[in-house]
Structures are given as structure tokens and as C-alpha cells.
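Next comes a single protein record:
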Amino acid sequence: MRALTSPIIAALVAVVSVAAPAAGQIKGPVAPSLTPEQNERSKSQAAAFDEAAVKEKHRLETFKDRPLAAVIQRSLDIYTNYIGVAAQMMPESSYGFRPTPEQRNFGEQINHATSTQYSFCNQTGLPPGVERQAMPRPAPTTKAAIVEAFKQSTAYCDRILAAATESWLMEVVPKVGGPSSGQIAGARAHIFIYNIVHNAEDYGVITTYLRMQGVMPSSSALDTRAQEAR
């Protein structure tokens, strides 16, 4: 009997250990759900700041017969729009908010996205006619300046891509990627893809900031499918 029960007890201990919260896990209520009023306000704000239609018109006009650049620009537009709209939706009083002490505050997180865009887009090298730019230093601290800096970094990456030929995008450069993921030799197009992936990651991070401050994330606020289904 003892031989039979010992493995069972060990298994139960293992299950309890997995199910139990970690020692450092915060206990207690989570942030409340957004109210209907907060949702409607977020949707109204997102619609006012949305630049998706303008970006798509520019993309279609700029990248005719350039399928590689066109698809890169499309993905870049989606996430820069989400981040840009979110940055404008967040009240300035919440720009100092951070979900945990170890994380950046909201303003710093937007600045991080801005700085990384300059870093990646400069990593491509510059096609003819484009002048090198970089993140402003010191980094902006007010909402208006942070939003504007992000817009300028996006416009800079857009200019590089607009000036690039398909063959230039396929040329191999010695260092592609970020310091944490490691750098490899790769096509210039791959650098733009790294930037898009990083923007998607940054946007995913700030959705938590937004909801904890009573703001619906911009991608959800701009999603009209639920409204169209009514």
C-alpha cells in the first residue's frame, strides 16, 4: 500500500506546486474592466487620431509595381498607426504610469519605440537622397513632444523605404537584427521586418498600460467588425 501511495502523493504535490501562485506573485483584485463609457470614449478618440486611410493611400500611390516594399510598408503602417493612436489616446497625466516598478513608464515606452525605429532604419544604410537622422537627445518628456518624435521616426523610415528599389532591399548587409536577438548577415528588407516585429512587440506591451489607465487599446478601438455585425 505504501509503495502505491507514495507516487500518488508525489504527483499531488507536483500538481499543487504548479497550481499555486509563485511566492512573488501579486495577490488581490486585478484592474477593473473598462466601463461602457470608457469604451465609447476610446473608440471616439481612436477614430479622431486614426491615420490608416491616409497611410494606405500613400502606400498604393508610392509602391506601384514594387511588391516587396509595398508589403513591408503595409505591415509598418499597421503597427505605427496603432502605437501613434495609442500615444495620443493616453492622457498626459498617465504618461508617468508604469505597471510595475521595473518597467518603463508609458512615455518612456513610446520613446523606446521611437529610438528603435531610428536604430533599425539606420541599420539598412541609406538609399540616395535620404539624409541620416537619429533620436533627439535628450529624449522628449512631454506628451506632445513624445508623440511628435514618434511621428518623425515613422516618417523617416517611410522615406527610406520610399527611396529604396526592390534590388536595394534584397542586397545583403553584414549586420541585421538587434543586440538581444543577435546580428546576422542578411537582406536590407529583413531589417525593416525586424523593426515591424519590434513595433508589434512594443504595441503589445503598451496595451496593458492602456487598459490599466481606463483606455481601450487602439487596435480594439479601431476594430469596426463588431459594430458592422449589429
About this structure: The chain has one domain: 37-217. The CA atoms of residues 119 and 179 lie 11 Å apart.
